[in-house]
Amino acid sequence: MQDTLIDLGLWGLCAGAFISSTIVPVGSEAILAFMVANKLYAIQSLLIVATIGNTLGALTTWKLGMMAAKKFPVPTHLTAQQQRALILVKKQGSWVLFFSWLPLIGDVLCFAGGWLKLPFITACLIIFLGKFSRYAMIAWLFT
Which 8-state DSSP code applies to residue 31? Predict the structure, then answer.
């Protein structure tokens, strides 16, 4: 029974991290902080699960950007924020995706990365590094 509870807790963290990196502003940081502070699981497990969930959510947004670029190849259909992000990502390249963890702008950066068809593996690794860094800082603050 305990293993089932652990699995549900980690799955819940993963789902919360995924959702918070897509369209719904769920506070995955608060979930992680609670789990770390209450020592519910090993910190390493929490970091990996939260990072994977959040990265998969960001890559979903990245894929939506790719799909939008195919349907609307001219960026005039984008919001002003999306157009600014597109210019920033075009100018700075894949490394700007490290900041995909930032509230509001992070999702737009991932969308722009997909729109520009940045190399998938590179984008995935950089997004993962940024999100892991953020979650590691939160875990450190709440241990």
Answer: H
Return the half-sphere exposure (C-beta side, CA atoms, 13 A cut-off) of residue 13. 25
Question: Number of helices (H) and strands (E), helices first, in the chain?
Answer: 6, 0
For 64-119, how does the pLDDT look when each residue is reduced to its tens digit (9 = 90+)?
999 999 887 766 677 787 788 778 888 888 999 999 998 878 888 999 899 889 99
pTM of the shown model = 0.85
Handedness of CA 19, 21, 27, 32 (dihedral sign): positive
Question: Are 16 and 49 within 8 A, CB to CB?
Answer: no
Asked if residue 15 lies in contact with residue 53, where contact means CB atoms within 8 angstroms, the answer is yes
- The 3 state secondary structure assigned to 85-118 is HHHHHHHHCHHHHHHHHCCCHHHHHHHHHHHCCC
CB 14 within 8 A of CB 50: yes
Rounded Cα gap, residues 49 and 42, in angstroms: 11
The phi and psi torsions of 26 (rounded to 5 degrees) equal -90, 140
